[in-house]
Each structure stands twice: as C-alpha cells, then as structure tokens.
Amino acid sequence: MESPDIVLVFPHGGETIKVSHFPPHGLLAVAADIIEEYNVKLIDERVDSNSKSKLKSYIALNPTCIAISVMTGQHITYALETAKYIRDLAGKSLPLVWGGVHATMLADQTLDNEYVDIIVRGDGEVTFKNLIKALKTGADLRTVTGISFKDKEGNKIHNPDTKDFKLGEARPAPWHLVNVEDYISDGSMFFGSDTKRMLDIGVTTKGCQHRCGFCYNLNFNKMYWRGMPADKTFEFIKQCVDDFKLDSYMIHDDNYFVNPKRVNDVADLMIQDNMDVKWTSTGITVYSYVRMEDEIKKKIVKSGCESFRFGIESGSPRIIKLMNKPNTLEQVYDV
User: Fold this and answer.
1) Phi/psi at 171 (nearest 5 deg)?
2) Tens digit of pLDDT for each residue in 227-250?
3) Lower Cβ count inside 10 Å, N or C end of the chain?
C-alpha cells in the first residue's frame, strides 16, 4: 500500500435509519488544493463499514497528520470515538487536526479536549495546505494563519485568521477519493418519482450577508457572501451532471440566490445548453426571493429548478424581529 501523507476523516453522524448522505464536501475542498502534491486518503465513516480497519492500516504507514471534520451535535461523539481510536494506536506523535463549523466557532473549548491538537478555522482550502507544509518541515506553527493549537506546554494559541478563500480559485473536487455512488439517491424527496439519480454536488457560494441570530454565518463567514463566477458555476454543474449521469442535483449553498445577476447568468447558460436536469438548493431566504425580478424567477424554473427551499423559521412577528430575520411576516405570506 502506498504510504498516505494525509488522512481525512468524516465521522459517523449517529443516523439510526437509512438516509441519503451528502458527500463530505468540506474535506473534498481541502483535498483539492493538496492532491497534486500529497497522497491523500479520505474515509467517510457514514458509508464505509471498513473505516476502522482502513484507519489502522493508514496509521501504520505514518502519515503527516489525520484531519477530522465535525459539525455540532452527535457528530462530535463519534468524532471523539474515532480520535481516541487513533490516539490509542499512534500515541501523541501523530497530530490530530480538527476542522469544520463546530471546531471553528468554539475553537478554545474544542482545544480543551485531549484528542485535539490543532484546529483549522474557517475555510480550510489555503490554511490546511500551509499547515501540512509546516508539519512536514517542522516550521513554527505560529507562522500559519487560520489555526489554533496547543504548544508543548499545553498553552492554547489562536493565530490570526486566514483571508477568505475566493471560490473563483477553487480547484475541481477530487471525486475519486470517494465512491460517488454512495451519495446518489433517487431524488424522490425533492422531485417525486420522475428522477432516479440525484446528487448533492456541493457549494458554488459561501456565506450570507444577513444577521439571523441563530445562524453559524455570523461567526464562520462573518456575514460575508461570495460566489463562484457564473461561467465556472455552470462548468462545475455540467461536469457533475455529465460525469455521474445525473437527472437531478442539489446545490449545497446557504443562499445560492443572493446575487440575482449571477443566478440569471447561470440559468442562461443552462438553458442555452439544453440541460435536461432538475435541481434545487439547500436554502433561499424570503428576502432574496422577494427582491428577485419575476423574469429571473421564470428563467430559473426554465433552467430546471423544481423548488425553492425557504428558511421561514417562525410565523411570529416578535420572534422574526428577535432573530433579526431580514423579512416580514407579510412577505412570508406573499411568497
């Protein structure tokens, strides 16, 4: 077996019923920037029944680090179980790197755990690559922006943030690191019985400019929205549809519809290409929909969009105001 430089792990989420999983997009994104330089292995514990035996074999080959991505919730329980398994096999010589929403937002608390050595905060595409270089060369971790870590005395160090990653610079996802068929569903939840091959293809934008009080974007993306250029977005969508023979797909953006011109331009390209595919996205705010011109909405539907998935959150004007939602209850009714 070829010795891996980096092992990426997406832990089990605690699901007790068969569900359609989304691919580990965050890990695929960081892998895209290092795959040409390093040998990368990716383990998704949700779909891989041999994950522990693979981990054991990879650890025996002495990788530079093992990185774990976590969200808040039961995900953490399984991530800690995996981290303990790694530590029991490798001791403290193998750095355990954590990333994702939870580790970013609660970096100081996360570092309290004995199975956390380093945290990659926020977008990991650039930060993780710089961290690997530092680990391989023995450079001072204080020189790596965007990370938090414990020094030899156990002190917690939080380096300055890394600049936001520009999606226009994103490299193609290294889909070969996973079995894409593990993430294909029939799409019936979103499109009825008319589709057979749906995939959550990942993100084309990051962040959101709203101030909704419950949302991770306040901290993680600091209310900053940025999108992949329209032509690159279309190419990304088309490649996924063609490569995986999709008849439907979902975009995993927090709010794909922030920039109406970009949405319009992508829809134009899809219509011009005669793409016979249905699609939806993981979210749109009532505010974004209300401010969109009717002609753009019609064009979006013509491009194959079958549904808008709104974050309503509440039917109470008092709660809407308390949460800093950008819409009114009247706008919800209108939509």
Assistant:
1) -90, 160
2) 999 999 999 999 999 999 999 999
3) N
